[in-house]
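Teaching assistant's notes for section 4

Start the section by putting this record on the projector. Ask students to predict, before seeing the second block, whether Zinc finger, C2H2 type will look compact or extended. Collect guesses on the board.
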Amino acid sequence: MSSLDPSTGFTCVACHLVFKTADLQRDHYKTDWHRYNLKRQVAELPPVTDEQFREKVIAFRNEREAQKKEEDEVSSLYCSTCRKKLKSRNAMADHIASKKHKEMEAKEPKGPRQPRKVDCQVLIIL
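Reveal the predicted structure now:
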């Protein structure tokens, strides 16, 4: 791939590339990198290089993994005995040591947790 000169081969205007064969150009059009540059072109932004795109993908994946890890930690800060969400590990430790939590544990029957009962009536009119 060389400078963008249509006379030397097949081009991709969105990515500023030239290809020696139509097959290479067609394969390029199927890549996420090309699609990303198309969206940038619509937004009137300059294209990114393949290397820049790969760095963005890696950064995005790392950020997503960090968010998932954070979400997993937050979801683990739930006391099923008291049905209470806590915002930090310290808050969870304080809650577990609290008198109210210990009272709830003593009241809770052993075995699988049952859902709360909801009283409702259904009236069917035919």
